[in-house]
């Protein structure tokens, strides 16, 4: 998750004259949606993989590629998403497209499945869930205050943070791709 980058992106999608009260509602709905999506994926994600006959390592490679594309987009600054303000209300935009797929997209889906697959004990699963929920709270607080953060950081500050997060996401994506390819090579060769 890139709460600052996503907040900046969300502000470009939402109405330009959005009030602080409206941004609070959007932040709440978005956060609730991504937390529900997380628990659906952590509970039923592997079942979905089995239904479609997918290997976790294939998902690692694909998830790594998706994360890599996201990272490259963050680094290059090509994260513009336009929506028709008149056609949708801000609260509707909180769920689609902000929560899903901008915040909780295929990259996050893949990451959750991969981390769950690597979890050995219940404590590991609890730690993953706690870490995600803490990230969701941080996301909520940043998104809720994104108007103030936007003024404080300015455009340049937001761009710098988004690019740094892009580098971290890119490094994680490369690890997923290499790990998945090595595992698939051992299975199929």
TrEMBL record:
Signal sequence region: none
Bilayer-spanning residue ranges: 30-49, 61-81, 93-115, 121-143, 164-184
GO cellular component, one term: plasma membrane
Entry's localization field: Cell membrane
Membrane topology: Multi-pass membrane protein
Family matches, as InterPro entries: Multi_antbiot-R_MarC (IPR002771)
Keywords on record: Cell membrane, Membrane, Transmembrane, Transmembrane helix
Pfam families: MarC
Family: Belongs to the UPF0056 (MarC) family.
PANTHER family named in the record: UPF0056 MEMBRANE PROTEIN YHCE (PTHR33508)
Name of this protein: UPF0056 membrane protein
Taxonomic placement: Bacteria, Pseudomonadati, Campylobacterota, Epsilonproteobacteria, Campylobacterales
